[in-house]
């Protein structure tokens, strides 16, 4: 039987930073694929912007986890990260509504979904 793996706090932070950086690259590749494979439309824009916000949040996360920052700076950087993640979820939700009920339904829902982010 092997002993469980225990990471130090620094190792865990760096692991998270690397994971966030990799997710950023994968999501950017997904955006490029989506733009090549799907004709321009309102729904493609919703999904593309949602993915872009998610990639930005992951890039911010890589920065926060990858560098040793003083607590006040770290707390300040978390705010745009949370805002960007929330807006990504709102855009993903609008994209899903658009796929389900059409562009008009997505357009009507988007302002309300974005308002929940704030």
Structural class: mainly alpha
What would you call the shape? Answer: elongated
Radius of gyration: 17 Å
Q: Find the count of extended strands (DSSP E, 2+ residues).
A: 0
Low-confidence stretches: none
The share of residues in helices is over 70%
For the residues shown, what is the average pLDDT?
94
Q: Tally the helices: what do you get?
A: 4
What multimeric state do the chains show?
single chain
Reported for the largest beta sheet, the result is: none
Beta-sheet strand percentage?
under 5%
Q: Please provide the ordered H/E string of secondary-structure elements.
A: HHHH
N→C terminal distance: 49 Å
Give a verbal description of the structure.
The protein is mainly alpha-helical. Helices cover 85% and strands 0% of the residues. It has 4 helices and no strands. It has helices spanning 9-37, 42-66, 71-101, 103-117. Helix 3 packs antiparallel against helix 4 (103-117). It is elongated, with a radius of gyration of 17 Å. It starts with 8 loop residues before the first helix and ends with a helix.
């Amino acid at each position: 039987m092997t002993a469980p793996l225990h990471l130090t706090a620094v190792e865990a932070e760096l692991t998270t930073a690397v994971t966030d950086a990799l997710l950023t690259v994968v999501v950017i590749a997904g955006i490029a694929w989506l733009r090549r494979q799907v004709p321009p439309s309102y729904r493609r824009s919703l999904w593309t912007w949602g993915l872009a916000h998610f990639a930005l949040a992951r890039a911010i996360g890589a920065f926060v986890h990858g560098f040793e920052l003083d607590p006040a700076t770290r707390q300040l950087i978390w705010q745009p990260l949370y805002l960007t993640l929330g807006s990504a979820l709102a855009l993903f939700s609008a994209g899903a509504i658009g796929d389900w009920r059409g562009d008009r339904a997505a357009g009507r829902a988007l302002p309300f979904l974005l308002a929940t982010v704030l």
